[in-house]
Write a structure and sequence with these properties.
Elements (H helix, E strand, L loop, with lengths): L1 H17 L3 H10 L3 H45 L1 H18 L7 H29 L1 H7 L10 H56 L6 H45 L8 H41 L2 H10 L3 H17 L14 H22 L1
Helix pairs in contact: 1-3, 2-3, 3-7, 3-8, 4-7, 4-8, 5-7, 5-9, 7-8, 7-9, 8-9, 8-11, 8-12, 10-11
Length: 377
């Protein structure tokens, strides 16, 4: 809301010059003896309004979106901490029982941690260079404090403190988004691995064991998996929704900065930071989406296990067992539960996380890039 308000007021400011009546301008120029001087100053003012608006709506919006979304995610994490802790304990307990050899996608965790640390270092170095080296003189000349500070060292110290606090707020917001992405991706991959292990074990038991020896236990195991997915979705769906909002806003703002002709964004260091931010945001979006879609994909494969169970094996198990009706009823109860329960996670309960979301966002990004490029010509 803050960024949109700045953009709206800036557009209104642009229209001031366009709505200035022509006869008023002509009258002012005729009255004045120095016509050329005032005409030049008038159009210089309009040009300054037009050219400097992008600096506010580009660089400032980047910080606003990161800080606000990061603050919202911190509040959500704090309010959901007990649910997340309970879901993690439930996941560890079920994973230890049903899939004791699972490493919880350890190689992905190590890789994502390294990229996370690298991203934080790149952001810190780039912001320090941009703030205290490249644009330090501009900040000293333009930033005004609401109270009097004597010029000199005291003014520089106060300005440095304010800019450092702003940098810390932005980095803290981005850091929160990165931590949530790591958490969601790891949990989603672990749940999908658990579903895969359960499906393969169930298929193997159908082929090698008598159904009466495992069918009742497998029904309980499947119910525990369904409850686990519901607990994970309840704990993380709001976090994922705001994470998507933050990532998408950062992607579109990064495109605007890349196309911008603002002189402050033309240095090599800033261009590298913009490129890295674009790649990093897409990587985060891809990780969360693929992790959530893996649960849905493994759930669809699990539904096929009962359909692939040979009919003669089921009949043989029921004939061998003394309690035929109970075994048959339990078997179809298990298949019905697998078919009817949606094994998937959502974003705020509004949409199911699947690959279509990534393709939709890609389409929107390409369309937005083309439109912004055409407008910049």
């Amino acid at each position: 809301m803050c960024g949109s308000a700045i953009l709206e007021e800036g557009e209104k400011l642009k229209k001031v010059g366009l709505e200035c009546p022509q006869e008023v301008c002509q009258q002012s120029c005729l009255i004045s003896k120095e016509k050329d001087k005032y005409v030049t100053a008038f159009f210089l003012l309009l040009g300054s309004i037009r050219d400097n608006l992008l600096r506010v709506t580009g660089g400032a919006l980047t910080f606003y979106s990161t800080i606000i979304c990061g603050l919202i995610l911190e509040v959500i994490l704090n309010s959901k901490r007990y649910e997340i802790s309970s879901a993690l304990n439930h996941l560890s307990r079920i994973s230890g029982n049903l899939n004791p050899r699972c490493t919880i996608a350890i190689k992905f965790v190590i890789r994502n941690r390294l990229l996370y640390v690298l991203s934080v270092l790149i952001y810190v170095i780039s912001l320090v260079y941009f703030t205290f080296v490249q644009d330090w003189s501009r900040y000293k000349a333009t930033v005004k404090f609401p109270f009097y500070i004597p010029p000199g060292r005291a003014h520089d110290v106060c300005l440095g403190f304010v800019l450092t606090s702003s940098m810390y707020s932005g980095i803290s917001g981005g850091n929160t988004c990165g931590v949530i992405c790591l958490l969601c991706n790891t949990i989603y991959l672990t749940v999908s691995s658990l579903i895969t292990s359960y499906g393969s074990n169930l298929n193997q038991k159908f082929k090698t064991q008598n159904m009466s020896t495992f069918i009742f236990n497998e029904i309980k195991n499947f119910k525990s998996i369904v409850l686990l997915i519901e607990a994970v979705d309840k704990a993380l769906n709001v976090c994922v929704l705001f994470l998507y909002c933050e990532i998408c806003s950062m992607i579109f703002i990064t495109i605007s900065l890349a196309i911008s002709k603002e002189r402050s964004f033309q240095s090599g260091a800033v261009k590298l930071m913009i490129a890295w931010n674009f790649i990093n945001q897409f990587y985060l979006f891809y990780n969360v989406t693929m992790g959530g879609s893996a649960i849905q994909k493994k759930g669809e494969k699990l539904k096929k296990v009962g359909l692939e169970c040979p009919q003669e094996l089921c009949q043989k198990s029921c004939l061998i067992s003394k309690d035929k009706d109970r075994i048959a009823m339990s078997f179809f109860l298990l298949l019905g539960s697998i078919r009817d329960n949606p094994l998937s996670v959502t974003g705020g309960g509004m949409f199911v996380i699947q690959k279509k979301i990534f393709l939709t966002v890609m389409n929107a990004v390409v369309t937005y890039s083309i439109i912004m490029f055409q407008l910049s010509l």
